[in-house]
Specification:
Chain lengths: 290, 530
C-alpha cells in the first residue's frame, strides 16, 4: 500500500537529474552566492575560535585604531576588535535570519496548507487572517510586538518570523489548493491515507521548491529586519554583537570613524545580496515552466 | 589733484561708514529672530512633577522664575523673584524679600502666597512625591510675613538654601493650581499652556513635535529681545547635531564630545566648554554586605583606569573625580584627600588581603560567596559604554559584573527608585554648593537621592556641621573634613567630573557661558546679533 502510494505520489520524469544539473550550471551567480554563503556560515561558526581577541574585550587605551596586524579591521569606540565583533555579530545575525525564516516557514506552510487543503470555511477563516496580517505593514507590526513583549533574542526571532509568515501562507495556500484534487492525492486518499499523511508526504514535497525559493529570500529579509530593529535600538541588545547593533553603535562616530559603519554594513549588504541571488537562481532552477 | 583728494575722501567716508555700520550691527539685536533649541523628549511643564528631569529642566527654567538664580560670574545666588535674603535664628530660618510688581503671564499678581503654596502644599507635601523634594527636607514650612516677605522655617540649619532655590526650583501659581486635587498632574498646565512668570511663555505645545514660546509682555525685567523660542523634540543626539550643522537648531545642550568634533568648522556654531557641580560614579548598593569592608570598594575603584575612560569616552573633556564636590567650587573643593590611582595589582592584592581569593572559575570568592555583581544600566549618553569598560576592568582583577541594559524609564524606576541593583553607573548633577547631604545622608537612603543606600552617622554629623556654618571660612573647614571622609569611605566610587559641552549659534549673544542652567536662567538677556 505504501509502495503504491509512493509510486503515484512521486513519478520522477526519466531525464530529470541531468536536466536539473544543466539548469544549475546555467546559474553561475547563484553558485557563487551559494559558495559565498557556505564560506560565510563556516567562518562565523568556527571563526571566533580562530581570532585571538574576544569580541567583548574592551580596552580604553586603544580605541578607534585603524586596521593592523593585531586588529585586522581595527578597533571600535571601546577598543574592541572589530573583526572579532563582525564574526560574533554574524553568528547572531545569521541565526536570527535562519531561525526566523524557519518560524515563518512553519507557520506559513501550516496555516496556508490547511487553508488550501481543506477549503471551505477553514479556508475563508484562515485566509482572512492572512489578509489581515498582510494589510498591516509588517515592520510596524514587528515594532509593536517588540515594544510590548521585550527584545529577548527568542522574541526577536519569533517576531521577525511572524512578519514573514503571511506571505509564505499565501504561496502554500495556492499550492495546496492546486494539488488537492490531483490524481496522486485522490489515490492516496482512496488507499486510506489520513489528511496529515496526504499533506505531509504527498503534497508538501510538491510545494517545497516554491517554499525553498521564498524561504531563501526570507532569510535575507529577516537579516535586514533584525538590522533595522537593532538600528532603532530595539533589536539584539549590546554587549551581544549583531551586525545591526554594530551599525547603530557606529552612528555616534559617523563624523570621526565612518569605517565603523562600513564593516557591518558591508557584511549585511553582501549576505542579503547573496541570499537574494541564491533565491533567484533557485527560482529559475526549480520553476517547472522554465 | 582735486579728483584724487575727492577719491581719498570718498574712500575714507566709505571706510567710516562701514566701520560705523559694523559697530552698530554688533550692538543691535534682531527683533524678528526665533531661536531653535532641542530637547530629547516631550517636556512636562511643571518643575515639580515627578519624573520631569533632563527633558524638562531647561524649558522650565525659562518658563518659571525662581526665588534666586546663579550669578553668571561665580554661580553665587543672585536676585530673581526674591531681591534679598538673610538667615535668622542662627541659621534656623531664612527670610526672603520678594520683588515688587511681578505678574503672572495671565495678569494675576505674584506674591508670598505663591511661594508658600509651592513649598507648603507641593514640595513639602509627602503625598505628592514632588521631583527633588528630598533636597528640601530641612524645610519645615514657609510662613507668609506680608505680601512680599516669606520666612523659610527650618528643622535643621541649611546654609546652602539660597543655592538650592536656584536649582530647578521654579515657583508655580497658586491661583491656577491651588484648587487642583494634585497640582502636579494638571494636564492643561503640564502639557499645554501653563501660567508662568518667566520672560517667555508657551504659545503652543504640539506633543512629540515642539513647544513654541513667545515673549511674556508682563515680565518684570521687561520684554526679552527675541521673537520667540522653539524647543524641538529630537530624541536622537546625532539628529540634533546634524540639524544644528544644517542651521535648523541654534542651541544643543549636553553635547557628546565625539559629536562635537569638527562642529566649529561650520563657522556657524561654537562649542562652550562649561563646568557643573556634577560627578559620574559607580554606586555600590550598601544593602549588600560585601561592601561592608571598605577594602572591597577601594580595590574596585583602583582597578578602574579612569583617565583612560575619560580619554576614550569624553575625548579628554573631563577630570578624574576625587569626591562629589567638583573643583569648580573653588575654595570649597578639597583636593588633599585620599586618591586611588589605577593600579590593578594593588587592587588584586587588596582583595586578597580582604579574603576574596581567586577561584578556579576566574572569579574571586570568600566563604563560598562569589564576588559577582548584577550591574544594570540605562540607555542614556555614555552610561552603557562606561558600564562595559568598568565591567572589563573588574574582570581583569577577578570580579564579575553581570551587565543588563535597560530602557531609560525602566532604569529610573527599577534601579534609581526601587534600588534593584548591586552596582550601577550613573551621575548626579547638584547645585553649586558643597552641601551634598541630599545625596549622602541617612535620611535620603532607600527613599531619596542617596542611591547607594549609604548611611553613616559620622558623615551625617560632618555634613550638618557644614549646614550650620554661615561664613565661607567655616564652610571651607567643615566641608574639607567631609570630603576627606567621603574619599576614605567611598559611599560612591567617584569616576569623573565631565566638562559640559553646549553648541550654540555664534550670533546668539547674552548667553552666560558658565553653566547651562545659568544660561537658561538669564534667557531674558539672549539676543541674536544682526
Amino acid at each position: 500500500m505504501t509502495d503504491a502510494a509512493a509510486t503515484i505520489a512521486a513519478p520522477p520524469p526519466p531525464r530529470a537529474r541531468p536536466r536539473l544539473l544543466r539548469k544549475i550550471l546555467r546559474q553561475p551567480l547563484g553558485i557563487f552566492a551559494f559558495v559565498l554563503l557556505v564560506v560565510l556560515t563556516v567562518t562565523v561558526i568556527i571563526g571566533p575560535g580562530l581570532v585571538p581577541h574576544s569580541p567583548s574585550r574592551t580596552d580604553a587605551r586603544s580605541i578607534l585604531q585603524p586596521p593592523s596586524a593585531t586588529h585586522w579591521l581595527g578597533t571600535d569606540e571601546l577598543g574592541r576588535d572589530v573583526f572579532a565583533r563582525v564574526l560574533a555579530g554574524g553568528r547572531v545575525s545569521l541565526s536570527v535570519g535562519l531561525f526566523s525564516m524557519l518560524v515563518g516557514l512553519t507557520l506559513g506552510l501550516t496555516i496556508g496548507g490547511l487553508a488550501g487543503y481543506f477549503g471551505g470555511r477553514v479556508e475563508s477563516l484562515l485566509m482572512r487572517l492572512v489578509d489581515a496580517f498582510m494589510a498591516i505593514p509588517s515592520f510596524f507590526l514587528i515594532l509593536v510586538i517588540i515594544t510590548s513583549f521585550g527584545n529577548a533574542p527568542t522574541t526577536i526571532i519569533v517576531t521577525v518570523g511572524i512578519g514573514f509568515w503571511a506571505q509564505m501562507a499565501r504561496v502554500a495556500h495556492a499550492e495546496f489548493k492546486r494539488f488537492r484534487h490531483h490524481d496522486f492525492v485522490e489515490a492516496s486518499r482512496a488507499l486510506g491515507g489520513t489528511h496529515v499523511r496526504v499533506m505531509a508526504r504527498h503534497i508538501l514535497p510538491q510545494v517545497m521548491p516554491q517554499a525553498t525559493v521564498l524561504a531563501t529570500l526570507g532569510v535575507g529579509w529577516a537579516i535586514l529586519t533584525e538590522a533595522a530593529l537593532s538600528y532603532l535600538g530595539l533589536g539584539i541588545q549590546p554587549p551581544l554583537a549583531s551586525w545591526g547593533n554594530m551599525l547603530q553603535n557606529a552612528q555616534g562616530y559617523l563624523w570621526r570613524a565612518p569605517v565603523l559603519a562600513i564593516w557591518p554594513g558591508a557584511f549585511i549588504a553582501v549576505t542579503v545580496l547573496a541570499f537574494n541571488l541564491l533565491g533567484n537562481a533557485l527560482r529559475d532552477v526549480l520553476d517547472p515552466r522554465s | 589733484m582735486h579728483i584724487r583728494r575727492f577719491v581719498h575722501r570718498l574712500a575714507l567716508l566709505a571706510l567710516l561708514l562701514t566701520l560705523g555700520l559694523g559697530a552698530a550691527s554688533a550692538q543691535s539685536a534682531d527683533p524678528t529672530a526665533v531661536l531653535n533649541l532641542a530637547t530629547n523628549a516631550d517636556p512636562t511643564l511643571n518643575p515639580w512633577t515627578p519624573g520631569a528631569v533632563i527633558e524638562s529642566n531647561l524649558i522650565n527654567t525659562v518658563l518659571f522664575d525662581q526665588l534666586t538664580r546663579y550669578s553668571p560670574e561665580d554661580l553665587t545666588p543672585s536676585p530673581a523673584l526674591a531681591v534679598s535674603w538673610s538667615a535668622e535664628e542662627g541659621g534656623l530660618a531664612w527670610v526672603f524679600e520678594l520683588r515688587e510688581g511681578v505678574q503672572w503671564s495671565d495678569g494675576a499678581p505674584f506674591g508670598a502666597h505663591d511661594v508658600a503654596f509651592t513649598f507648603n502644599d507641593v514640595v513639602l507635601n509627602p503625598e505628592l512625591g514632588a521631583q527633588s523634594a528630598s533636597q528640601y527636607s530641612a524645610i519645615e514650612r514657609v510662613e507668609i510675613i506680608d505680601d512680599l516677605t516669606v520666612r523659610f522655617v527650618l528643622a535643621t540649619p541649611f546654609s546652602a538654601l539660597p543655592y538650592y532655590l536656584a536649582s530647578f526650583a521654579g515657583i508655580i501659581p497658586e491661583h491656577v493650581l491651588g484648587s487642583a486635587e494634585n497640582p502636579l498632574t494638571v494636564a492643561s498646565f503640564n502639557k499645554a499652556t501653563p501660567v508662568t512668570t518667566g520672560p517667555y511663555m508657551v504659545a503652543e505645545f504640539v506633543p512629540g513635535s515642539y513647544v513654541r514660546l513667545v515673549p511674556n509682555p508682563l515680565h518684570w525685567a521687561g520684554e526679552p529681545q527675541l521673537a520667540g523660542l522653539v524647543f524641538r523634540v529630537i530624541p536622537d543626539p546625532n539628529t540634533q547635531v546634524a540639524q544644528a550643522r544644517a542651521g535648523e537648531l541654534d542651541v544643543v545642550t549636553r553635547l557628546s564630545p565625539n559629536l562635537a568634533t569638527g562642529i566649529e568648522a561650520t563657522g556657524r556654531l561654537e562649542v562652550l566648554r562649561q563646568s557643573q557641580n556634577l560627578f559620574f560614579f559607580v554606586a555600590p548598593n550598601h544593602d549588600d554586605d560585601r561592601f561592608d569592608d571598605v577594602r572591597v570598594k577601594q580595590a574596585l575603584l583602583m582597578a578602574i583606569d579612569r583617565q583612560a575612560m575619560i580619554d576614550a569616552l569624553l575625548d579628554g573633556f573631563g577630570e578624574v573625580a576625587t569626591g562629589p564636590v567638583a573643583p569648580m567650587l573653588g575654595a570649597l573643593y578639597n583636593p588633599d584627600v585620599r586618591t586611588y590611582d589605577y593600579d590593578p595589582e594593588a587592587a588584586a592584592a587588596l582583595l586578597d588581603e580582604a579574603g576574596w581569593t581567586l577561584g578556579a572559575d576566574g572569579v574571586r570568592a570568600k566563604d563560598g560567596e562569589r564576588l559577582a555583581f548584577s550591574m544594570p544600566t540605562g540607555q542614556f549618553g555614555d552610561l552603557v559604554p562606561a558600564t562595559l569598560l568598568v565591567q572589563q576592568y573588574w574582570e581583569d582583577i577577578g570580579v564579575m559584573a553581570d551587565v543588563n541594559i535597560l530602557e531609560w524609564n525602566a532604569y529610573i524606576q527599577d534601579v534609581v527608585v526601587a534600588r534593584n541593583y548591586e552596582v550601577t553607573v550613573a551621575w548626579w548633577s547638584m547645585p553649586p554648593t558643597a552641601d551634598v547631604a541630599p545625596y549622602f545622608s541617612c535620611s535620603a537612603a532607600r527613599t531619596g537621592n542617596n542611591i547607594p543606600n549609604y548611611c553613616n552617622e559620622e558623615l551625617d554629623e560632618l555634613m550638618n556641621a557644614g549646614r550650620r556654618a554661615l561664613t565661607l571660612e567655616d564652610q571651607v573647614e567643615a566641608y574639607a573634613a567631609m570630603q576627606e571622609f567621603l574619599a576614605d569611605d567611598l559611599p560612591y566610587l567617584y569616576l569623573w567630573y565631565p566638562d559640559i559641552l553646549t553648541a550654540k549659534n555664534v550670533a546668539l549673544q547674552g548667553f552666560p557661558e558658565i553653566t547651562a542652567a545659568t544660561a537658561f536662567q538669564h534667557a531674558v538677556d539672549w539676543y541674536i546679533a544682526r
